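BUG: 3D viewer hangs when loading the predicted structure for this chain

Environment: internal workstation, default settings.
Expected: structure renders.
Actual: progress bar stalls at 90%.

Input used:
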Amino acid sequence: MSRMSSAAAAVLLALGALSAACGPAPVRPVSFPDADVPCPGGRTSWNLQVLDRRAEREGTERAVATVRDALRKSFPGCRWTESDPPAAGEATITIQVHRLASVKIAGSWEAAAEWTVTVRDGNGQVVTEFEANEDVLRPDYRGSDNEKESISAAFRKAMERTVKGLSGIPSFGAARPREGTSMARASQPRLPAGNV
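Structure tokens produced before the viewer hung:
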């Protein structure tokens, strides 16, 4: 019997080590599509770069894919490319993931989803940049996957903030100069002399 229990303990230990090596708990898929904003900035296509900048990069592919998929599903009217570097004239949304983890601390789970979103036009100029930082504290409920639930809640909040931020990007080239400025006067149509 002791050989069986030793073998069983070894298998459980190996499975535990294997699951810990796979990175953070999986995050529930989310999306926030808005019929009024099928694609940010009034565009039809974007280059999307999702970069893992976490200190501990376990499960990088899964973390990057989760962020990428949530953003794509939130803007179904976009055609997405993944060029690095972006093609000439291609507008780019870059998301640098700084934290995406959940840790058990004294009877509760503390989860964080933190990233920086940078939007560049086709010339490489920054259109907007903002942070999506969300923390969630969850009690350690019995019979629940608290790690997954807490990280999913933080991720959902951060992605919702990201989608709202991207939805607010004005259409490129659609900005009207403020009235009374030299740019506004220069953009007014000129009438031929004598037609006043």
